[in-house]
Design a protein that fits this description.
There is one protein chain. This protein has one domain. The protein has 5 helices and no strands. α1 runs antiparallel to α3. It starts with a helix and ends with a helix.
Length: 126
């Protein structure tokens, strides 16, 4: 249980570290020609998976729907705070579209882990 939350926290710190870099330090990342919104989405997929896993381990009696909802709220709130903190970083700004891309990434992570669990249960009962 403790390990699952530690992994979630460490990954959240990685996100905060990356989003705390001033814009002039991100020029080399821009050479990859990846759209900003795609990067936001991709970065938040693992966070959704890790937080869902930590919640389901910590609260095994929590229904799949509530675990999904709480993960979305926790990660979505984190994404909103992450966007807000960028107001204080040189050359960065708070952008609603970036936050929406974060939410899409969280949803993608949740869909992936829920489908994985459904497939695992189906194969286990066959």
């Amino acid at each position: 249980m403790k390990r699952a939350w530690t992994l979630s926290g460490v990954y959240a710190c990685v996100i905060l570290t990356l989003t705390s870099l001033p814009s002039d330090m991100l020029v080399s990342i821009g050479k990859l020609n990846l759209p900003d919104l795609a990067i936001h989405t991709a970065i938040y997929i693992p966070l959704g998976i890790l937080v869902f896993r930590a919640l389901s381990i910590t609260y095994p009696r929590l229904s799949l729907a509530y675990c999904w909802l709480y993960t979305f709220l926790i990660c979505g709130g984190f994404g909103a705070l992450d966007e807000a903190h960028q107001l204080f970083i040189r050359g960065r700004w708070c952008d609603i579209y970036d936050w929406l891309a974060d939410l899409v990434g969280i949803l993608a992570g949740l869909v992936a882990i829920v489908l994985s669990r459904i497939i695992h249960k189906t194969r286990g009962s066959a």
